Amino acid sequence: MEREKLYGKTLNELIAVTKRIGLPGFAARQIADWLYKKEIDSIDQMSNLSKKTRELLSAEYEYGLTPPDHATVSTDGTKKYLYRVLRDKFIETAYIPDDDRATICVSSQAGCKMGCIFCMTGKQGFQGHLSSNEILNQFRSLPEFANLTNIVYMGMGEPLDNTTEVLKTLDILTGEWGYGWSPTRITVSTIGLINGIREFLEKSRCHLAVSLHSPFDEERRRLMPVQKTNSLETVLDIIRNFDFNSQRRVSFEYILFKGLNDTPQHIRELARILNGIKCRINIIRFHKIPDSEFESPDEETTKRFKEALNAKGILTTIRASRGVDIQAACGLLSTLEQNRKI
Ligand code: SF4
């Protein structure tokens, strides 16, 4: 019989587990301690639980960690791990060391249903939501787990299309009974799902990143079909009217496509629509994917675009391209692996 995984359960879920199998209430916190504060990997090692309790737990549950299937290492130190999920699917997790920071980029779904036309994960189609166990396992089973300083939800899938499981992982990462991380070390990136953003802003204190890519309705619809039902205008209204405290940040991701969204009109329109929002724009270079019409502009154009936005008063940075020699575009590596298995 397949046993349920304990790793990835919130404190409330652990309380329900202990109630169900007849353990005292305090056992839930003890189990949370073993899951999220200590580096063990089996119920048997939970040494302050009685043997009887461990047997009761093990009858129905397992600890629940799964190591990565394999890794690819870039010359710049970035690593991409493939994890097996949902039995026979693969997801990607990136480890990005950078001076005194070490960031993990996690996936929240296998494939994606949002269909952004520039995205390799989008081309895979949707294969399933990851559970909180499968999302958090990427973090805990990463060989570099002990070095991690930041976590970004920018891997495969749309995190706010899997809000329930993503919020559980944020609860575990930031709860004092969990990893106790500051929410300012965590950023969740979305293409702009209105209901998901509302729920995320209300139920967590982590940073928000929104993929913008074009300030023009029609162009954005073409790049990102989500614009047809979740308009950027509404997303910006929600953000503008939300009381971000001094700690919480909102940023906008902007993939620059050569000759498409890198013009002076785009700069003017970005400045207009972001007026009054305290934010930052991260310019991302497009990483080429097979059969794509898109190209990345040269460095000079990218720099000029950044400087023009800065001159308009919008703090803008260019995100360094990492892992370009190891299929940097998200979804490429897992597609190759899936095709290889077929
Ligand atoms: S860019 Fe993000 S939301 Fe769009 S298809 Fe790719 S993974 Fe999905």
Any overview of this molecule?
The chain is built from twelve helices and 14 strands. By secondary structure, the protein is α/β, with parallel strands linked by helices. The strands form three sheets. It has a ten-stranded mixed β-sheet, with helices on both faces. A two-stranded parallel sheet has the order 1-2. A hairpin with a 3-residue loop joins β4 and β5 (about 90-100). The chain is globular. The structure holds iron/sulfur cluster. Iron/sulfur cluster binds near residues 112, 114, 115, 119 and 158.
Could you list some keywords that capture this structure?
single chain; 342 residues; alpha/beta; ten-stranded mixed sheet; two-stranded parallel sheet; 20% strand; binds iron/sulfur cluster
